[in-house]
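Sync notes, pocket subgroup
Present: LS, DG
LS reminded everyone that the earlier model was apo-only. Rerun requested with nickel (II) ion included. Inputs:
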Amino acid sequence: MAKAFANIKKIEYEGPNSRNPLAFRHYNPDEIVEGKKMKDHLRFAVAYWHTFRGTGADPFGLGTAIRPWDDGTASLENAKRRVRVAFEFMEKLGVPFYTFHDRDVAPEGKTLRETNKNLDAVVKVMKEEQERTGIKLLWGTANLFSHPRYVHGAATSCNADVFAYAAAQVKKALEVTHELGGAGYVFWGGREGYTTLLNTDMKRELDHLAKFLHMAVEYKKQLGFKGQFYIEPKPKEPTKHQYDSDAAACLNFLRQYDLLPHFKLNIETNHATLAGHTVQHELEVAGAAGVLGSIDANMGDDLLGWDTDQFPTNIYLTTHIMLVVLKYGGFTTGGFNFDAKVRRESFEPIDLFYGHIGAMDAFARGLKIAAAIRKDGRLAEFIRQRYSSWDTGIGAKIEQGKTNFVELEAYMLKKGEAAPNTSGRQELLENIINEFI
Ligand code: XLS
Ligand code: NI
Ligand code: NI
């Protein structure tokens, strides 16, 4: 086992009154909420790319992060040592899962063959560490956006060879995800989009993206990989317009190309807000379509217009997210993956602990608050009442498809005017939420 965090003991639950910054105040993994352990509701994962590859670099300056275990080289030795440190971190934090891109964990070589060999060497260490700690892979993915070859996209590139390279890369990423027993695999669009329509054949690019995903589905079967496939919507960044722009756009694309049975969605808070939605909206769109799969947990900044990927600490946000997650029956293969990074100014290793501890506590609180709101029942009862005109009479007939325009006209001609509306009571409902926060 690595000893990068020798001075930090395992993070324990100490209850709401603890003032120990390296303890949980709300995340109590074995505590039962709605008949299930907290850890099984939340299924937290650490994102390897932010937590172990993030340097704090931004367009205006170099990295600031102090990572004593990392020698800054792209050597295999460094990559392997980093894996050991990552597992030491996750073990001390007490998260059951992690997520990674192929290129987060192993360096690219000069050829695809060499790159694959590097990946195999590091995956061997990852497997050892998974076995040693019991920490599992929530999902794997391929980085199809950092290398200059992907300048015009991967599956939507104008260069057919780049499509082929991306296919080879995803094939390998699926194999290692399978090898590591991953519960899922994510397709986030990377550079699948455009910066100007003047040089873009959108129809052709979308057809290619669908072909790519069909091939992935086919290879998944061939491999015997049983994990869940997810698409992760995002409206912009790095491109001006990403094809998987939001949950509704993804659903439309998946349906149009007969891919819907094979995919669920991985919804990210900051991507929802970039799309001009709340994350609750995106979760509802996914949930209503039966494809609410997993969540990339983070939050943006109200005043900044990009994907700031901050650790989620807002209790209203986590409460609303938990209300939707519980409503749709919770996760099966998915979980809360902290697609979040510490600020450039928070450059010490210990800040990685503070970021995760705060976010885990925020979701634990959100879970407890949402469960209390559900137990109280006033919110659900209000909604039930609000739609009660559909339970009997003409409403029930419409829902059952047992009427038509002619009959509805006759019904209204006889009645003369619709029954009066009732108040939406938004303020009252907001006050009820606040009673529990
Ligand atoms: C980027 C995405 C990315 C995916 C995985 O904005 O959130 O990190 O989660 O490729
Ligand atoms: Ni993400
Ligand atoms: Ni993101």
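DG: Residues 349-376 form the longest helix (28 residues).
LS: The chain is about 45% helix and 10% strand.
Action: DG to write up.
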